[in-house]
């Protein structure tokens, strides 16, 4: 049996869609929170976040995709919103603390809140065949086109669950 190098394995499982979307959105969060401290501080915070997220979010996305196949779904959701955020935001905090990011608590808090919502949305979408990479993946343009219906389904999933479990 042929052995696969750790680098080849990491590159094969890296979730490029998660890395791209996460890096773009999160660097914007850090830029906007830091802009009152000046352009240099805001650009430094955004660049630090972009570089961290483009590297790390591909792996977090892979973990999320693996969790999307786990059942029951509520256990996967719970694991995804507890274990993954603790790991990624501890590293994120360290990077920004060393970089000297202004308003660090605000930035990390917004990033953490975004993680909870985006991870649950990604799990919801992945269970419906969107935002996945590898076998069965759609193009990024098909994922973007599906976004409005996925977002509506995600936002209304809680109320629909309540109505299903509590019939009048």
Present the secondary structure layout.
Blueprint: H1 6-13, H2 16-34, H3 39-68, H4 73-99, H5 104-126, H6 140-165
Helix pairs in contact: 2-3, 2-5, 3-4, 3-5, 4-5
Short account of what is shown:
The chain is mainly α and 168 residues long. It contains six helices and no strands.
Q: What features would you describe in this structure?
A:
The protein has helices at 6-13, 16-34, 39-68, 73-99, 104-126, 140-165. It has one domain. The protein is globular. It has 168 residues and is mainly α.
Task: Give the N-terminus to C-terminus distance in angstroms.
Answer: 59 Å
Radius of gyration: 17 Å
Uncertain regions: pLDDT < 50 for 5+ in a row? none
Query: What is the count of distinct domains?
Result: 1
Structural class by secondary-structure content: mainly alpha
Considering DSSP H and I runs of 4 or more, what fraction of the residues is helical? over 70%
Counting DSSP H or I runs of 4 or more residues, the number of helices is 6
Q: Average pLDDT, to the nearest integer?
A: 88
Q: Helices and strands, in N-to-C order?
A: HHHHHH
Number of strands: 0
| Main beta-sheet strand count, sense and barrel state | none
Strand content: under 5%
């Amino acid at each position: 049996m042929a052995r696969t190098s750790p680098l080849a394995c990491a590159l094969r499982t890296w979730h490029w869609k998660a890395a791209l979307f996460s890096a773009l959105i999160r660097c914007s969060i850090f830029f906007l929170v830091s802009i009152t401290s000046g352009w240099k501080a805001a650009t430094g915070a955004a660049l630090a976040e972009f570089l961290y997220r483009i590297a790390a979010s591909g792996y977090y996305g892979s973990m999320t995709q693996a969790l999307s196949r786990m059942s029951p779904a509520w256990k996967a959701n719970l694991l995804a919103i507890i274990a993954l955020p603790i790991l990624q935001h501890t590293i994120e905090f360290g990077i920004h603390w060393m970089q000297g990011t202004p308003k660090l608590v605000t930035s990390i808090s917004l990033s953490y809140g975004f993680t909870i919502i985006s991870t649950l949305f990604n799990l919801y979408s992945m269970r419906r065949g969107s935002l996945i990479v590898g076998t069965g993946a759609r193009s990024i343009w098909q994922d973007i086109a599906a976004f409005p219906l996925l977002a509506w389904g995600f936002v209304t999933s809680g109320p629909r669950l309540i109505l299903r479990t509590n019939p009048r």
